[in-house]
Amino acid sequence: MSGATASKRVLKTTVAAAAAGVVVFAPLAPHAEGAGPRSGDPVEIRVGANAGFTKVEFAGAVGSRARVRQDGRAVVIRIGTTAAPDISRLRVDPPKGVEKVETRSVQGATELVLTLAEGAGVRSGAADGAVWINLYAPGAAPEGTKPSVVPAGGAVPVTAEVKDETTRLSFAWAAPVGAAVFRRGDAVWVVFDAAARMNMPAAAKAGDAAKARWAAGPDFTAIRIPVAEGQGVSARADGAAWTITLGGPTTSASGIDIGRDDSAQTALTARMAGATRTVWLTDPMVGDRFAAVTALAPGKGLRTGRRTVDLALLPTAHGLAVETPTDDLTVKAEGDIVTLSRPRGLRLSPPTVGLEAAAAEAHAPRAAVRPALIIADWADLGSDSFNDRHRALQVAAELESGRAAEDPRAPIEGRLAYARFLVGQGLGYEAIGVLNALVKQTPAMQGVAEVRGLRGAARAAIGRYAEAEADFSSGALAGDPSTRVWQGYIAAQRSDWTTARQAFAAGAGVVDNFTPEWRARFGTAHALAAVETGDLDAARELLAYVFSQPGVSAPDQLTARLVQARLFELEQKPAQALALYKAVARAPLDGISTPARLGVVRLEMARGTLKPDQAAAQLEALKWRWRGDGTELAVIRSLGELYLSQGRYREALTTLKAAGRKIVVLPGGDKLQSDLDNAFRALFLDGAADGLQPVQALALFFDFRELTPVGADGDEMVRRLARRLIDVDLLDQAAELLKYQADNRLDGVAKAQVSTNLAMVYLMNRQPEEALQALWSSRTTLLPTAMNSERRALEARALMELGRYDHALEVLAKDASPAARDVRAEIFWKQQQWGPAAAIYEQQLGNRYRDALIPLTADEENRLIRAGVGYSLARDAGALNRLSANYSGFADKARSPGGIRIALAGLDGADGSGRPQDFATLSAGADTYAGWIAATKAEFRQKTGGDRPATPARPQAAGAA
Fold first, then answer.
1. DSSP percent split of the chain into helix, strand, coil, nearest 5
2. DSSP result, 213-277
3. In sequence order, what are the residues at sequence separation of 6 or more whose Cβ sits closer than 8 angstroms to the Cβ of residue 548?
4. Digit-coded pLDDT (tens) for 47-98
5. Is the peptide bond before 298 cis (omega within 30 degrees of 0)?
6. Which of 129, 205, 125, 219 is nearest to 168 (CA)?
7. Rounded to an integer, what distance in angstroms lies between the CA atom of residue 69 and that of residue 77?
8. Could you count the other beta carbons within 10 Å of the beta carbon of residue 793?
9. Mean pLDDT across the stretch 556-580?
10. What is the mean pLDDT of residues 445-465?
11. Are 177 and 193 in contact (CB under 8 A)?
12. How far is CA 152 from the centre of its chain?
């Protein structure tokens, strides 16, 4: 072969392997499987750190193919590009435990070398399309850290011993690794579950392994060794070293048991002790894809291969090898079990293929034409009594079961005949017991369609819908129309009306093959689904079909009449519906009469013949009469709505909440939870509880506070209730409410907002330490500018209250917002910096002097008095004269006319009114803190909608919230 031809072949092989996304072999460039999404940079180095370790990831089209090895204290990351990557982040700030970071050029690649400190640790692996290493500082490596499996020097020494017609290759790992060894075509494959460089022996000394090629992925190494046809292979481990023998007698491998799993989708399982990893590879010579499953020593392999439509298990010297023509086969190694499956299950022969044929029994129930059918012949006793027929079938089943305990090829027909008889007689519990015993004795029978169909039917008949659905979802019943009928019935019981109608439509062609009893039940369920989806014409036809069935039991007929009454309601025929409901309500069966009584209450309330309090009393009685299914849910929902309409909020919430978990998880239970949530929202978000006294509203909220929604709505609920408590000075209760919300239900910006309100309440209650704690514990980045300004002013005010004036001014810095100016003026006043304080108070008044006809507010009077007193104490006559000229006209209409005159006259007033003792009284009286509280309350009220008219409370029953 010419050099050009050889080059083309190498190029084609490389392109095929790259397209498959897996490893090709040295000297070709290695390619890691499953690299995932790529960033724009060929090599992207990401660094993250926490208290325990530093994580470095290598991503990108080239970085994700990096190989990691450890050589003593040096961790070497080989990156397949000659362009040095950007490692400035690592060099400027080396991770803890790393002494030196450097790069070096090697042939066709760049190596990043991290030199570890003495005692430092490292872990490596691949995930999410990136290769990663975790670096641990000395003494910080977690317990159980596995020692490096790569020997010092960074490569695994491989030695060859050629003797007679055999070649022994020894791989000297530093610690035990899992392996898979098998022959595939004209080559022997050796796959290890760790990545390392192989130090292969020279070709002259390698014997039959002279043409061996190896490649490493992120977490595996594969070696392909061309061998002659018929040449044997064996594998054994001695400590951490693996020895592969080519040629000589082939050791008979064993230790792997293959079985089938029909518990869900049909799958194969391989019991292989010590299974470690599944590695998907592409053969560079053939181009197809296959899987190798590695396992730890001692040696275990598959003696003979297995082949199915979907896969082939190759004979192995150790581990497992799987070929597949599909692209969706899953090979999962978990502990000692390897599971091989496909999304829709494997295509395998029925489990009954190897069983002996059963002797024909003259009177035994025969199998139906569909696996999930119930046919009338099963209940036919002929000339026998029930006890005689039951006893005969039971004895035959017991004898067959006893034989099956010793002979796995024993038939199952006797036990299936017994189960058919029990299902036909309506003895669902007994039938389930027989079928469960059959599956327990022979697990492969889970893959028999009739076993699944019979058990599913028995389970559905006794109301075990989740278990029945598991049976009907089995791959053995896929596409069966009788199964679809049952799935429609189950969906109807779960109030999944759309799914029910679709499933019933898919199985419509076989409904007539069921017994009349089940035809009636299916027709009733289908009619109800049609009613609930608005197809009234279909509901009428289905009910007519139900009433035409012969020999239908009274309970089944009454159930159909309930659906008919509901149909009359929707057809606007209330009189007919009420009459039918009343007739059914007289039945001695609570499960049927209770929903009928509910219909009576609903219609009589609509007609006005039943008062709400009388209806509530009747619904309370119905709530305890029938429990545990959708009927109880309907009663509870109706009662809750009735209580809400009467304004009996506590009873409504208690009723809706008291349903319990078992009811909520039933079909339709989500609607009950929705009713509960909506009622709580109506009370505390839409204003329905505004008419209650604040203490009553608080008690109601705390009793049901677990219903508070997370997020903006829950935040708003709490703020509104807190505002009502603040309005009546119940500050401790408001603080408790806000603190619970901040500590238990919120995070990020929402928590910061509620904590800001909490700090306000603490400051109103003169608790500055708690206010600071609320602010500091909710610090976060990227808060809105307005919120940051508000929090800054509150923090400064709290520090001021603690006497930490300089710290408070540092917090305010250059903040010129109105809230910041208020606090800054307070601080200056407390520091007796009269002039700066007075200037700020005057600045806050602005041009208020121009509206002389409008009297000053209490807050404005306080600021004016403090400004005048401040200028007087600062001996700033010019400023005082200006202030007096502008505001002396307001004194006559003021709340404190004398106080304003004294403040504006100053200590040197001509009339002698400005005495020092008067200024002291004025300073104490002009309480700007009270003004801040009033302003804060008004602002909080405006933000939470407190300035709107309250929703009038509905009349409360005695004992209501």
1. 50, 15, 35
2. EEEE-SS-EEEEEE--TT--EEEEEETTEEEEEESSSPP---B-EEEEE-SSS-EEEEE-TTEEE
3. none
4. 888 878 899 998 888 888 888 887 778 888 888 887 878 887 788 788 888 9
5. yes
6. 205
7. 7
8. 22
9. 93
10. 91
11. yes
12. 44
On whether the CB atoms of residues 321 and 182 are closer than 8 A, the answer is yes
Question: Which pLDDT tens digit goes with each residue over 132-148?
Answer: 899 988 877 666 556 67
pLDDT tens sequence across 886-937: 888 888 888 878 778 888 886 654 444 445 555 555 555 555 666 677 677 7
Q: Which two tokens stand for residue 295?
A: 């396992």
Give the Cα separation of 239 and 313 in Å (integer): 28
**Which of the four pLDDT bands, split at 50, 70 and 90, describes residue 525?**
very high
Q: What whole-number distance in Å separates Cα of residue 207 and Cα of residue 328?
A: 39
Based on the number of CB atoms within 10 Å of its own CB, is 592 exposed (0-12), middle (13-18) or buried (19 or more)? buried
Phi/psi at 286 (nearest 5 deg)? -100, -40
Pairing of strands 316-318, 179-184: antiparallel
Instruction: Give the Cα separation of 768 and 794 in Å (integer).
Output: 9
Please, are residues 722 and 732 in contact by the beta-carbon 8 Å criterion? no
CB-based burial of residue 911 (10 Å sphere; 0-12 exposed, 13-18 middle, 19+ buried)? exposed
Q: For position 941, what pLDDT does the model report? A: 64
Q: What residues pair up with 171 in beta bridges, in sequence order?
A: 158, 242
> Which of 96-100, 270-274, 516-520 tops mean pLDDT?
516-520
Flag the least confident range among 398-407, 652-661, 697-706. 652-661
Mean pLDDT of 265-286: 89
Residue 204 banded pLDDT, cuts 50, 70, 90: low
Q: Residue 405, exposed/middle/buried by CB under 10 A (0-12, 13-18, 19+)? A: exposed
d(CA 231, CA 254): 19
Cα 907 to chain centroid, rounded: 72
Own/partner contacts of 721-727, CB < 8 Å, gap of 24 or more, are 721/684, 721/697, 722/757, 722/761, 722/944, 723/940, 723/941, 723/944, 723/946, 724/690, 724/694, 724/697, 724/946, 725/694, 725/698, 726/761, 726/764, 726/937, 726/940, 727/694, 727/937, 727/941, 727/946
d(CA 862, CA 870): 12
| 524 residue type, one letter | T
Res. 36: pLDDT tops 80: no
Kindly calculate the radius of gyration of the chain based on its CA atoms and give it in whole angstroms. 42
Torsion of CA 613, 615, 617, 621, to 10 degrees: -170
CB 452 within 8 A of CB 438: no
Q: Residue 481 carries which side chain, given as an amino acid letter?
A: P
How far apart are alpha carbons 792 and 635 in whole angstroms? 53
Sign of the Cα pseudo-torsion (516, 522, 523, 524, in order)? positive
Residue 91: enclosing H or E segment and its boundaries? helix 88-92
pTM of the full structure? 0.57
Q: Is the pLDDT of residue 151 over 60?
A: yes
What six digits make up the tokens of 162?
């050629």
Residue 38 predicted with pLDDT over 50 = no
Instruction: Report the mean per-residue pLDDT for the chain.
Output: 82
pLDDT of 804 reads 92
Name the β-bridge partners of 121. Answer: 136
Q: What does the longest C-alpha to C-alpha distance in the chain come to?
A: 132
The residue to which tokens 């007096």 are assigned: 884
| Surface-to-core class of residue 468, CB atoms within 10 Å of its CB (0-12 exposed, 13-18 middle, 19+ buried) | buried
CB–CB of 951/688 below 8 Å? yes
Dihedral of the CA atoms 128, 133, 139, 141 (nearest 10)? Answer: 30
Tell me how many helices (H) and strands (E) the chain has.
Answer: 34, 27
